[in-house]
Write the structure tokens for this entry.
Amino acid sequence: MTANNTICGATYGSVSTDTMGRLRPCCTINSPLKDSNVQPYRIDKIGDLERFWSSDIMKEIRKAGIEGKWHKLCYRCEDQEQGGSFSQRQLYNYLLPKNATINPIPDIKMLNLLLSNKCNMKCRMCSPKNSHLIGKESSAHGLKHLWGNDVWGDDQTSTYSTPVSIDDAALVDLIEAYSHSLNEIQFTGGEPFLSDTQHIILKKLIDLNISKNITITYNTNGTIPMDSYFDMWSKFKKVSISVSLDACNDLANYIRYPTNWNNVNKIMKSLDTIQNNVVFVKVNCLVQALNVLRLDELVEWLDQFDNICRIPSFSTLIMPKHHHLRNIPLDLRKESSKKLMHKLEKIDIKRGVIKWPYDWNLDRMIKTIYYLGNEPTVTDASPFIKFNTELDKVRKLDLFTVLPELKGMIAKE
């Protein structure tokens, strides 16, 4: 069907889990959907997937989309699209059926699986739900308030300070039940390469003899060597590796802590040696207050590679609000957008063995340039400063050393 401006394919062909196996239609809806008893639908509870699929809340989301309205749970995509940026909803349009109804028969084509919150990093815009190390750090240093219920929607630190994960057997049962319709599985976390579950699933797909029909997508921080998977990946239709990098060098370490930039370079150069039509590697960049003035540096660094996509896939951070790019003055962002466009014009998209569909990432990049150069500035950026300076005391880092251009923007609290 021809998509209108609010209907979302995720509600017709996708299921997403959080790190505890609780269900939602997509990963941009932060909290799991709940039944009439205010209990979350779970992947490991018999019959819950079907109840989730035909639940009143799923019907409400589909109905809003059909009527051209935004459901309240879809505020992230609404914010991005109304600002001229690219949203996850637009990415899921390929899942739309020919005839969209509010209560379709389950036809699951894509699984988005947050395998575990086990992670080797403590990214500033993340939460204990997706990194147990943040939970441990928060508990040890009295920082629970930084990831409170008002930001993330449930009790983060008491639940997630030790690793949690999805039930392997429940996932295998789900894959077997929908093996006839599945065509993509997305692995994220946490760090998916620290989870044994993804290896179990890959092997199951191969054993079921459907791997050649399946695209595997990873969202990884790019710090774990992947060479041991190269042979297994060759048995799949496509493997897309999205490496989450938001900046280079010291700023990379500040945002996604701790980042060993030399190690990242080494792993990326290993991935750049892949020359086939199965494995594709790109960089996902989350545009936010902390990197919005340095995006051109990331684009310049990427231009050294031949087979890794040299245009990052940009998405704009919506939550938490204290990390939104609106915290940075508009005049600084306008200057950043000019530098980014200048770098974009110099990229040689014809170089390399793997021929990327660059139009896709170019479109997202141009929309991001427009978004960062036009969004209004918040009236009070003190939560941005307060969060980072308070965390800096624990991590022995300094916001104004890493980003000296912000010194003139706001005085230290």
Observations:
- The chain has a mean pLDDT of 89.
- The chain is about 35% helix and 10% strand.
